Amino acid sequence: MFHVNENYQKLPGSYLFSTIAKKVNAYQEANPDKNIIRLGIGDVTQPLAPAIIEAMHKAVDEMGHAETFHGYAPDLGYEFLRKAIAENDYAARGCEVAADEIFVSDGAKSDSGNIQEIFGQDNKIAVCDPVYPVYVDSNVMAGRTGTYDKETGTWSDVIYMPCTAENHFVPEFPKKTPDMIYLCLPNNPTGTTLTKDQLQEWVDYANKVGAVIIYDAAYEAYISEDNVAHSIYECKGARTCAIELHSFSKNAGFTGVRLGYTVVPKDLKCGEVSLHDMWARRHGTKFNGAPYIVQRAGEAVYSEEGKAQLKEQVAYYMKNAKTIKEGLKDAGYTVFGGVNAPYIWLKTPDQMTSWEFFDYLLENANVVGTPGSGFGPSGEGYFRLTAFGNYENTVKALERIKAL
Ligand SMILES: *Cc1c(COP(=O)(O)O)cnc(C)c1O
């Protein structure tokens, strides 16, 4: 008889977004006349920018001619895209990241889930709490758990770093020294971020204790403040301790197109072993490259027209963020985020739990958000709204919330 991977039995509770969908569907079925506005799931709604569509059309046409047809892509990515990334996301910001340190992929979710494969099973991981669930679940699947504490419902090798209003959502160095540290900045779900100086402290800490930082920069394009780093490689010493993940989903609307990249610097080593070489080997073995058409679309993100059009798209969502933030404030809520990220994190009123507030908002305002407790224990008592809806619905949702 075969065995299954028993680590899967250790995974934390049911998947957050399927629970939400079930509740929303049940409510809609019971109340078919109600117009529900969804500000819950982190998916974009604006169509792809014209420069991207144009690049994709051109690439599709190339694929129809023998002279310009493309088969398997190079498994680390096409040179034209890696060069565009190196120039625009790194050289232009004074970061030392070479094109051949960039691994093109089909998105940051798979990279953030897969990157743990190159680390030993007894490594301890530290995550911010609340947390993007992929970081924890992918490590639990790999057996990176340690021993279970029934009382707290936590694993000894998964260190939660509380990020709450009390510490201004800035994680503190944990008591137990981690081997792998996940940082998502600007943060999903809290919409908050660290200053560049605060991030530098984490880089110094990682280098000191011999930990690696897995830095998720999925929301980098939403940064509006000057003292916030767009890349961890803006910090001194990051090349010896940090891996950086990027997505084209939130800055360019590629959630359905699929494209991302990961930087593993050549200076990142464990003794003599190069993590860069390990990830290249892993990528080459288990991944066959992002589609040519999509990589051309990615290249267009860095063209002059592409940049201008995407700046407008980000501004559109950030106008929603402002609408949500100010509307909630007017209604007396305590709100965070929404300045460098398309997420607003609010304190639930009247000591309601996150799920109580979810039901309250669904039933009384017909607005869907995400309960903070679904992202980790420190998310209890908080609630996430996203700025990824369309503007008219966002305005309407806030009118309803204000009228409660
Ligand atoms: C949306 C998101 C991603 C992006 O995932 P893709 O697979 O590139 O669509 C990565 N990390 C976080 C924290 C996200 O919210």
Automatic annotation (TrEMBL):
Residues engaged in binding substrate: Y15, G42, K109, Y132, N188, N288, R384
Residues with PTM N6-(pyridoxal phosphate)lysine: K250
GO biological process terms, semicolon-separated: lysine biosynthetic process via diaminopimelate, diaminopimelate-aminotransferase pathway
Top-rank taxon, per record: Bacteria
Pfam families noted in UniProt: Aminotran_1_2
Cofactor field: pyridoxal 5'-phosphate
Function: Involved in the synthesis of meso-diaminopimelate (m-DAP or DL-DAP), required for both lysine and peptidoglycan biosynthesis. Catalyzes the direct conversion of tetrahydrodipicolinate to LL-diaminopimelate.
Subunit structure: Homodimer.
Stated name of the protein: LL-diaminopimelate aminotransferase
Species annotation: Roseburia faecis
Gene name for this UniProt entry: dapL
